[in-house]
Amino acid sequence: MRTHLQRWLRVTVGVLAGALTGLAELAFALVAGLWLLATLGRRTGRGAETRIVAGARRLADLERRRMTAFFGTELATPPTGLPAVNYIASRWAVGLLGGVVLGCALLGAGYASLAVWGWFVADINSPATLILSSVGGLFLFYLCVQGTYGVALADERHARRYLGPNDGQLMERRIGELVASRAGVVEAVHDERRRIERDLHDGVQQRIVALGMLLGRARRASEPEKSARLLAQAHEETQQALVELREVAWRVYPATLDEGGLAAALETVAERAAIPVRLRCDLRETPPPTAQAVAYFVAAEAVTNAVKHSGATLVTVHGERRGAVLRLRVEDNGRGGADPSGSGLLGLARRVAALDGTLTVESPAGGPTLITAELPCA
Q: Is 309 left (phi over 0), alpha (psi -120 to 50) or beta?
């Protein structure tokens, strides 16, 4: 309730500011039109056009900042030339409409409150008149509240038509984002394959080679004691190879994620970390498997980076789902200075972008480092 009230107040202030700028734009349109008529066919006409375009651009930029501040509308840079002039020349009608709606809202609020103060101030002796006036005023106020959102929406659509981004520009931007995210996913998969190959080559493969050499020496040994000793070493190498193979498989995709969900997988990350990890997972609804997997890898990589590079003594992992968004926050008390363009964090950003999510990294010098991933669950 409080959030809706704050939003309505913000939109109302934006519509009120738009009504005031609408008066300025109406005056600008009248003066500019008369000025162009007066200088038509004269040498000063070109200079008048330049000044009118410059003024229209400044007013359009003012409108763009107003709608960004109060409506949260993202608009392109105000265009130069005729589009800016056309926008300002027609936008004043929307602004004045907002002023009329707000004026009717004040009138409705006055009538709605008549039942409270009308007995003492107004000379009205009929209770029915007061009640009907209050109900009518309340209904008018309600309509104007809804009309305020309608004016804000009309203002936004009118601005997008002239200032952009329009539907075509939004589609082009979306296509660019999809192309970039697809390329990022391909690169992330390529990096993951190289990492797996390196882990197998440097770890498990070397263990298996050493195991083969030990078994070969044991077969060639003539003394039973030496052969038994070599076989014992080979058995130890076998155990170490199995441990490293499990480590590689766990880093590729943990079975715990399918068996127990994200909370259980994050507990595994906390247990395997070399430093204390404080975990809090608030998942009222189970996120989709893809979102859980990406959240897990973000947490695992962030904790690993904190252990290796930050000098942290504590890491806090907080996962929660609010509506259609899964939010994961990983914070450490290390020295900070993490580079978002580094290979590890860049790979995480690509994973998150593949799901249309966002990854933000806040790591000032001296710490702390906060990594936040927001993943859609729709």
A: alpha
Q: What's 280's DSSP letter? A: E
Q: How far is CA 252 from the centre of its chain?
A: 27
pLDDT in tens, 45-65: 566 677 888 888 888 888 888
Bridge-based pairing state of the strands 315-322 and 325-332: antiparallel
Identify whether the C-beta of residue 269 lies closer than 8 Å to the C-beta of residue 238.
no
Exposure letters 201-218 (e unless 16+ CB within 10 A, then b): eebbeebbeebeebbebb
pTM for this entry:
0.52
The label of the residue with tokens 């003539």 reads 222
| Higher pLDDT, residue 230 or 56 | 56
What is the predicted pLDDT for the residue at 172?
Answer: 73
Burial of residue 263, with CB atoms counted within 10 A of its CB: 0-12 exposed, 13-18 middle, 19 or more buried: middle
Residue 183, Cβ density class (10 Å: 0-12 exposed, 13-18 middle, ≥19 buried): exposed
Q: Between these two residues, 45 and 28, which has the higher pLDDT value?
A: 28
Instruction: Give the residues across from 375 on adjacent strands.
Output: 326
In Å, the largest CA–CA distance within the chain is 122
Per-residue pLDDT tens over the stretch 158-198: 888 887 766 666 677 777 766 766 666 666 666 667 776 77
Say if residues 104 and 126 touch (Cβ distance below 8 Å). no
Q: With b meaning 16 or more CB within 10 Å and e meaning fewer, what string describes 266-282? A: bbbbbeebebebebebe
The two tokens of residue 297 are: 């890898």
**Cβ pair 368, 331 in contact under 8 A:** yes
Q: Convert 57-106 into a string of H (helix), E (strand) and C (coil).
A: HHHHHHHHHHHHHHCCCCCCCCCCCHHHHHHHHHHHHHHHHHHHHHHHHH
Asked whether residue 302 carries a pLDDT value surpassing 70, the answer given is yes
Query: Residue type for 242, please?
Result: L
pLDDT band at residue 120 using 50, 70 and 90 as cut-offs: low
What's the pLDDT score for residue 241?
73
Q: Are residues 73 and 156 in contact, defined by beta-carbon separation less than 8 angstroms?
A: yes
